[in-house]
Design a protein that fits this description.
heterodimer, A: mainly alpha, Histone, subunit A, B: 486 residues, alpha/beta, Amidase signature (AS) enzymes, 16 helices, globular
């Protein structure tokens, strides 16, 4: 199945991936080839087959509802690209030159 | 045989007999890392001072007469997808450059609890996506048997480290064959446990319903030992199964009388290299000589498994990797941008081509209008693949076949063709879709002196049977004793 460049551009937007035009073109060729390959599944009749999302019959597992120590603030912030005091610094959603805390 | 060529069991015996200290063992492997790293490029991070400190602590415990763990003083290399407290963990990706986890993965906790020495973090395909370790954002690892060739992937650094005698043991992860495939191409043992047998806590997720952590070792005895250490229930992983872990090392050398080996015809078709087929068939004959019975079985949906895998895995990856947005940790773009553009620019700059490709496939197959045609269809095929194995295991105790269609290929040979690369995993992915355990053991060499792997597959939670069956062959051969000249 061939993807158009517009379809690839849309998927990149949904995936939050900024790409150059050259990368989008390369992606169009490669994704189309991969989708052609996986299209062989359409040859199989799977009517009445239940989808299997997980190999084991897993179910939600609840912990006891008890308080436990949290990660200390300093540890949680250690890897932050930017910090504002005891908070993560993030870009502003609206026009602003200053980061805001999160 | 020098210290670095020994197995973990041999190193443990030497230390117990006071013929070598943990410090001497650590120094020997640190020297091997230094000497061989320019050729092999197995490691991302090694903190020599910390390694020596860990080894000294083991020696002090021994000197004080304190009880020691099962891996006391044995160095272990850890794939850089597993979190290590205080040591950078990159997934070989620019997007996690500089990330230092505040906690250890469950498997790393277990290694430390058994007095293992964490030697360092190994190179990998970025976010475990690949079959050659050429997708690392930092370096391409090399095969110790021929450094012009790839070690396999995505756990290529961990496999090369053991095969190249830079570490006696290592940990990798297997989502579609990423332990078994590099084990086969590097001539060592690599096991993918049953899904749920080993906790995924602290494993940076690629495809959550497929990923499993497992060891690389020189032989099956070390593999059994590592499985005893890393297996078991963990309440922090909701998919971790609370079932007893057998003492694998205790029963390992008990041969299995009347072993029934299922040989699937689908594993011996088009695309299988004749030398690989010859070695695998010779291994099956060796089993017959030792009393095993070969049984024809069919896995009729296995030709579709690779296509199903390359829908399911990217779908899960696109969801898992959404967390890498440059806000709380990792790479954030230096370009001035608003919030949404910051996400897109950070991810565009931070992820490499293969990761972007898989996120794109995953996003597409989960998007409105395509989910049923691709993702749900693949999940239905996944059920059929699992059913094939359920039916095969009614006729046999273990399924055997080649681990890979060819021996190790040249670096760069397939890097421009994603589909050709994906075919490297054609015999391994169905095991992950079905959630069953699999192991690759060495079973010969090509005329170019490249290793060949034999794959053994068993029903869920039958690792004990699988390891015993593997040991039966290993006890009759010497492939596992050979070491490359690096």
């Amino acid at each position: 199945m061939s993807l158009t460049l517009d379809q690839v551009r849309k998927v990149a937007k949904l995936a939050r991936l900024e790409m150059t035009e050259a990368d989008l073109g390369r992606m169009q060729t490669q994704l189309s080839a991969i989708l052609d390959y996986v299209d062989q599944l359409q040859q199989l009749n799977t009517d009445g087959v239940e989808p299997l999302a997980h190999p084991l019959p897993v179910q939600n597992v609840f912990r006891p509802d008890e308080p436990r120590p949290s990660l200390p603030v300093a540890e949680a912030l250690r890897n932050a690209p930017t910090r504002l005091g005891d908070y993560f610094g993030v870009p502003a959603v609206f026009d602003s030159d200053e980061p805001v805390s999160h | 045989m020098s210290l670095i060529e020994k197995t973990a069991a041999e190193l443990l015996a030497l230390q117990a007999a006071k013929q070598a200290s943990a410090a001497e063992v650590a120094d020997a492997f640190l020297a091997a890392v230094r000497d061989r790293e320019p050729k092999l490029k197995s490691f991302m991070t090694v903190d020599e001072a910390d390694v020596r400190k860990q080894a000294a602590a083991v020696d002090a415990k021994r000197a004080a007469g304190q009880p020691l763990g099962k891996l006391a003083g044995v160095p272990v290399a850890v794939k850089d997808v597993l979190c290590t407290k205080g040591m950078r963990t990159t997934c070989s990706s620019k997007i996690l450059d500089g990330f230092v986890p505040p906690y250890d993965a469950h498997v790393v906790e277990r290694l430390r609890a058994e007095d293992a020495v964490i030697l360092g973090k190994t190179n990998m395909d970025e976010f475990a996506m690949g079959s050659s370790t050429e997708n690392s954002a930092y370096q391409t690892s090399r095969n110790p048997w021929d450094v012009s060739r790839i070690p396999g992937g995505s756990s290529g650094g961990s496999a090369a480290a053991v095969a190249g005698c830079q570490a006696p043991l290592s940990l990798g992860t297997d989502t579609g064959g990423s332990i078994r495939q590099p084990a086969a191409l590097c001539g060592i043992v690599g096991i993918k446990p049953t899904y749920g047998r080993v906790s995924r806590y602290g494993l940076i997720a690629f495809a959550s319903s497929l990923d499993q952590v497992g060891p690389f070792t020189h032989d099956v005895t070390d593999c059994a030992l590592m499985m005893e250490v890393v297996s078991g229930h963990d309440g922090r992983d909701s998919t971790s199964i609370d079932t007893p872990v057998p003492a694998y090392t205790k029963t390992l050398n008990d041969p299995i009388a009347g072993l029934r080996i299922g040989v699937p015809k689908e594993f011996f078709g088009e695309g299988l290299d004749s030398e690989v087929e010859g070695a695998v068939r010779a291994a099956l004959m060796e089993y017959e000589k030792r009393g095993a019975k070969l049984v024809d079985v069919s896995l009729p949906h296995s030709p579709y498994a690779l296509a199903a895998y390359y829908i399911v895995a990217p779908a899960e990856a696109s969801s898992n990797l959404a967390r890498f947005d440059g806000m709380h940790y990792g790479h954030r773009t230096k370009e001035k941008a608003d919030l949404i553009a910051t996400y897109s620019k950070s991810r565009g700059e931070g992820f490499g081509p293969e990761v972007q490709r898989r996120i794109m496939i995953g996003t597409y197959v989960l998007s409105s209008g395509y989910k049923d045609a691709y993702y749900v269809k693949a999940l239905k095929v996944r059920r059929l693949v699992k059913k094939d194995y359920d039916e095969a295991f009614e006729k046999c105790d273990v399924v055997m076949g080649p681990t890979t269609p060819t021996a190790a290929f040249k670096a760069g040979e397939k890097s421009g063709d994603p589909l050709a690369m994906y075919l490297s995993d054609v015999y391994t992915v169905s095991c992950n879709l079905a959630g069953i355990p699999g192991v690759s053991i060495p079973c010969g060499f090509t005329k170019d002196k490249l290793p060949i792997g034999l794959q053994l597959l068993c029903p869920p939670f039958e690792e004990e049977r699988m390891l015993r069956a593997a040991r039966m062959y290993e006890a009759a051969t010497d492939w596992h004793t050979r070491r490359p000249a690096v």
